[in-house]
Amino acid sequence: MSTVVLDARDAHELAGFYRRLLGYEIRSEEPDWVLIGSPSGAEGVSLAFETERAYVPPVWPTRAPGDQQMMLHLDIEVDDLEGETARAVSEGARLADYQPQDDVRVLLDPSGHSFCLWTPAAP
């Protein structure tokens, strides 16, 4: 797999958020499409963002029939869970109301997609 694509009301805004969060670089951009990836020479899955004017943010966790269902979420491993959570929030994410685990933080990006910051469990 090379790329994960996320829809958004504004592809450029969401790409900017993940570019800052992950330290990624812009690989390609068009008026309604942006592709970002890890810095040159580094491995990793690229992210692409497509403007969808009728985009409806998912609800997490789903609470009622008919809620816009989450289709996927991104897991991002970090060394400092609290520090990286604070940094993600400062970049425009918001902490989800429901937090299911102590070693994971569920956040919502500026378009409402959920993503998780996590640390490996201590041995």
From TrEMBL:
<feature type="domain" description="Glyoxalase-like">
    <location>
        <begin position="4"/>
        <end position="117"/>
    </location>
</feature>
<dbReference type="Pfam" id="PF18029">
    <property type="entry name" value="Glyoxalase_6"/>
</dbReference>
<dbReference type="InterPro" id="IPR041581">
    <property type="entry name" value="Glyoxalase_6"/>
</dbReference>
<protein>
    <submittedName>
        <fullName>Glyoxalase</fullName>
    </submittedName>
</protein>
<dbReference type="InterPro" id="IPR029068">
    <property type="entry name" value="Glyas_Bleomycin-R_OHBP_Dase"/>
</dbReference>
